[in-house]
TrEMBL record:
It comes from Prevotella communis. Residues 1-20 form the signal peptide. The keyword Metal-binding applies. This is Bacterial repeat domain-containing protein. GO terms for molecular function: metal ion binding. It holds the Pfam family Flg_new_2. SUPFAM superfamilies: Pectin lyase-like. The keyword Glycoprotein applies. Keywords: Glycoprotein, Metal-binding, Signal. Residues 234-302, 318-381 form the Bacterial repeat domain. It comes from the Bacteria.
Length: 960
């Protein structure tokens, strides 16, 4: 049996007319939807068995992929459903595949029927065109077929038959059926009932032949029109302005319903619905049945004015804000208001009470409707043992000393997050145990970050600390402690304490950035941290308020690295509104040692520094490489209230090899910035000291002890009269008496942070022994940096010679102490891990960071309840090692039990060894063996110039 492939495209346009009693509206819409999605499905009928199979919802394509005996009726019906007489589109009629078996007697019957019928008698229509396209017709033994248009009456009887086309031969197809379109005769009249388009085998083509139709596609559009009686519904508001109604006006089919909603404005209440002054309902929304044009009224009643008195009797504990302040506390009755209670630090919200003491709510945000006069008060309570005047930890000084970090400050308590792995993850897929997870997971409940690992945590992308109230405590980490390398960590939230952490960025990341960035935040303490090996600056800390940086090291900024800006070697950009930096070592950097941040205009608080008091005291600056290395402090704000005041007090300056080669001609305590006299800040210098008879003092008279003693005695010496000898300089403005009167402060204008100042000499001794991440123990980098600053060893490592990008053609060989890469340093032991060198795209095994692993006999502390304290310590302190809540509870001292433990470890009053040793016997030596003392019996970390005592014997330390 030969098969024929026919592609049939059907296009019909159906038009109708509907009579209406009142308004006449005619609407047209195209039929553009898949047949299977129409309201009525398909049916198949077999005359031989007189049975009907209902195929409601059936995929027409699946139903028609079959073979039926010739003489059967195979039809599907598409019912047109008007949707509120609006536009309806139907596209893509279903792809059909079917085959009709010829009858033996040669009779013909319907081969395929497409029937279209509306589901309402209100519509009448008539087709205007039918289109047919046939392809791949087989010439031989091809039975004829014909295309008919039939009109049916309500009983389903055929009342009109129109022959649209007939195929007798292949030539007919070629001539007439290539995308043919047939006009429906004008005699066809409109009908409420069905029209059928029939494709069937022609009479006489029987004898068992087949009419094979494959891939029959019925597509097209149809337009159905009609008219309908519409009525108008209108709703108005009485009195005007009292509220709104929806819908306010609409046209609907007469007899249909309309749902209308009334919404009162503030100060009004809905009363009811009225038609012709007769109330028809008080329900809202109300369902109206529309029999003719209808006008309804939504009536409202005006409410009385109400007064709200709100606040708290405990202003020291918290405050109350309101969503709408009204007219001096007066509101239209019915006004919806929201009160928000905010507890001050160390307190918490308890409840809302009315004027009679009745509890209204225990939620800090209370929303209510004000209908009558009310009094509402917020009740707060204080956290047990909380002290507002408690410093961050014993030994915290400066403007940031009242930072609370992870301490409990309200009734939420506090949490501990342990870092248990050194790898990194991403912000959108946090991995439990990573540093990123510990800092970013959870809510803003105060948290303390502790470590159950040691070594280098290499960040693979910027890590933004997105929660406030955080303490990062490295002093109890196992082994040699923690170093954060790779990408930057950025503090974006306030009230953060970081202790005993190393930040050594390195040069493998693709972008140049400081390893720690602190901007636009307040209350920050950096204590005993180490910053080094940055391609930009080792630390960025400015546009802040109430910060302290103490006992830290910033050293060995990378000089000629991969920074696109060229050579750098910067220690830090530092400042803020009320910032203190004390007892820090700034070592072996060409510039920004530090760069004091300037004042700029600001549109919002902490966007930029505007009112600056920067306290720079008891620091040690060693081996700076540029005579303008310490600079900044300009006032570039147009705000008349702005000021920039830098207080440089009792700092110690010790030259090094980079100073010898790069700053020989001039030597300044500071070279203040400001393009003109109107842009310079104010400066207070007192007690700052250049080291006398220094090993690396450059040649020249200004470096003689005689000249140095002059500026040591008077830091402003020679500012206006002796340009060559002065040690206080302005970078872009020539010295003058006018400048001196404007910019040089000879006394403090007011009390500063209240810290206790040491002399520059004493600060030097303390800093070179104690600065940096000393716990759990110093790494070999900080040990070397302290020894170099103390003079017990000389700077050794430096970068290779390069051509300057700032001065092309100039070759530069870095002085000792100035490195281009961490690879310039030789380590005795190193931390080994894999990291991506983003300049080459290769993952390499790096050995550039010092080893900080666990020594023989060390183990992790046992902390069963994960509250941050070892079990044995808790037992000795009378705490429960199985109760995590006792860690964050505040004691009578104001510190939590966890803080007491962490602070004790940091200041040496609590020895961690009993909690970290396995009990394995290891060779021990006398703790006093090799210890160095001065003549006053004080133990020294490194020998100091002069007479020292070693193993009970005096000796003279080598000259620095």
């Amino acid at each position: 049996m030969k098969k024929k492939l026919i592609l049939l495209s059907l296009f019909m346009t159906i038009m109708s007319t509907m009579l209406a009693q009142n308004a006449i509206v005619t609407t047209h819409w195209p039929l553009n939807k898949s047949i299977k999605d129409l309201a009525v499905g398909s049916a198949a009928y077999n005359s031989a068995t007189a049975s009907t199979t209902t195929c409601e919802g059936t995929d027409v394509k699946q139903m028609l992929e079959t073979s039926v005996t010739f003489g059967s009726k195979l039809a599907f019906q598409a019912t047109i459903t008007p949707q509120s007489y609006a536009t309806k589109e139907v596209t893509g009629l279903q792809l059909l595949r079917f085959k009709v078996q010829g009858a033996a007697d040669g009779s013909n019957d319907y081969g395929m029927i497409l029937q279209i019928k509306p589901n309402t008698t209100d519509l009448t229509y008539v087709p205007t065109k039918v289109g047919v396209s046939v392809a791949s017709w087989v010439k031989n033994s091809s039975p004829a077929f014909e295309i008919l248009l039939l009109k049916l009456n309500a009983a389903g009887e055929v009342t009109q038959t129109y022959e649209l086309g007939k195929v007798n031969s292949h030539s007919d197809i070629d001539a007439n059926y290539d995308d043919a379109s047939f006009d429906v005769p004008a005699t066809a009249t409109a009908s409420n009932d069905a029209w059928q388009v029939v494709v069937r085998m022609a009479q006489g083509y029987a004898n068992g032949k087949n009419l094979a139709m494959g891939n029959v596609t019925l597509t097209g559009t149809a337009t159905v029109g009609g008219s309908v009686q519409l009525s108008t519904f209108t709703a108005t508001v009485v009195p005007e302005g009292a509220g709104t109604v929806s819908p306010a006006q609409t046209s609907v089919v007469t007899g249909d319903n309309v749902s209308c909603t009334a919404t009162p404005n503030i100060g009004y209440a809905f009363e009811g619905w009225y038609i012709n002054n007769v109330q028809v309902g008080t329900d809202n929304p109300h369902l109206f049945t529309i029999s003719s044009d209808t006008q309804a009224e939504a009536r409202f009643t005006k409410l009385e004015e109400a007064t709200l008195t709100y606040g708290t009797d405990m202003p020291a504990m918290g405050s109350v804000s309101i969503s709408d302040k009204g007219d001096n506390g007066k509101y239209n009755a019915g006004t919806v208001l929201t009160l928000t209670a905010k507890a001050n630090k160390g307190h918490y919200f308890v409840r809302w009470e009315d004027g009679n003491g009745n509890v209204l709510s225990t939620s800090a945000q209370y929303t209510f409707t004000l209908n009558t006069d009310m009094t509402i008060k917020a009740v707060f309570a204080m956290v047990d043992n909380y002290r507002a005047d408690l410093i961050a930890f014993p030994g915290a000084e400066g403007y940031g000393k009242y930072t609370t970090g992870g301490r409990m400050t309200d009734n939420r308590g506090a949490k501990v997050y342990y870092v248990t792995r050194t790898d990194d993850c991403s912000d959108d897929a946090l991995v439990e145990g990573t540093l990123r997870w510990a800092l970013r997971t959870g809510d803003d409940t105060p948290r303390t970050i502790l470590f159950r690992i040691c070594g280098t945590i290499y960040l693979t992308s910027k890590l933004s600390v997105n929660h406030p109230n955080v303490t990062i405590a490295g002093q109890t980490a196992p082994g040699g402690g923690i170093c954060i390398a790779g990408y930057q960590m950025k503090l974006t939230q306030p009230n953060i304490i970081i202790r005993h952490i190393r930040f050594r960025a390195g040069d493998l990341a693709a972008t140049s950035m400081s390893p720690l960035d602190v901007e636009n935040v307040h209350h920050i303490v950096l204590d005993h941290c180490s910053f080094s090996w940055s391609m930009e600056e080792n630390l960025t800390l400015y546009d802040t308020d109430s910060t302290t940086m103490q006992w830290c090291i910033s050293a060995e900024g990378l000089y000629y690295s991969k920074n696109v800006k060229g050579e750098r070697s910067y220690a830090m950009q530092w400042g803020g509104e009320h910032g203190t930096m004390h007892h820090c070592l700034v070592s072996s950097c060409i510039s920004r040692s530090p760069r004091f941040n300037g004042v700029r205009n600001q549109a919002k608080p902490l966007e930029h520094d505007l009112h600056v008091d920067n306290e720079f005291a008891n620091n040690v600056i060693f081996n700076w490489g540029n005579h303008n290395s310490i600079h900044g402090g300009e006032n570039a704000s147009a705000d008349e209230s702005s000021y920039d005041r830098v207080y440089m007090i009792n700092n110690y300056y010790r030259p090094g090899p980079a100073t010898y080669s790069g700053a020989a001609a001039k030597r300044y305590f500071v070279s203040a910035s400001g393009d003109n006299i109107n842009l310079v800040g104010e400066w207070y210098l007192s007690g700052n000291k250049f080291e006398l008879s220094s090993r690396w003092a450059p040649n020249g008279s200004i470096w003689s002890d005689t000249e140095l003693q002059k500026v040591n005695n008077d830091n402003y010496y020679g500012f206006t009269s002796d340009y060559a000898s002065r040690a206080m300089n302005f970078w872009s403005v020539s010295p003058s008496q006018t400048l001196a009167d404007k910019a040089l402060l000879h006394e403090l204008p007011y009390a500063l942070s209240g810290m206790t100042y040491e002399t520059a000499d004493e600060a030097y001794r303390q800093v070179t022994q104690k600065a940096g991440a000393s716990l759990p123990r110093y790494d070999e980098v900080d040990e070397r940096l302290l020894a170099e600053a103390a003079g017990t060893r000389q700077p050794q490592y430096h970068g290779s010679t390069f051509e300057s990008e700032k001065k092309p053609g100039t070759m530069i060989t870095p002085a000792a102490g100035i490195i281009n890469s961490p690879a310039d340093i030789t380590l005795s032991r190193y931390d080994e891990f894999y990291a991506k060198d983003e300049a080459t795209g290769q993952t390499i095994k790096t050995q550039m960071w010092p080893w900080m692993g666990m020594e023989e006999g060390e183990q992790l502390m046992q902390d069963t309840d994960l509250d941050g304290m070892p079990d044995e310590y808790e037992k000795s302190a009378g705490l429960n090692p199985n109760d995590a809540s006792d860690g964050y509870k505040l004691t009578e001292s104001g510190y939590s039990n966890l803080e007491i433990f962490l602070n004790g470890v940091a200041d040496g009053t609590i020895d961690l060894k009993p909690y970290k040793m396995t009990g394995i016997r290891t060779p021990q030596k006398d703790s006093n063996e090799g210890a160095i003392y001065n003549l006053r019996g004080q133990r020294l970390l490194h020998p100091h110039k002069g007479i020292n005592i070693l193993n009970g014997r005096k000796y003279l330390a080598e000259d620095r």
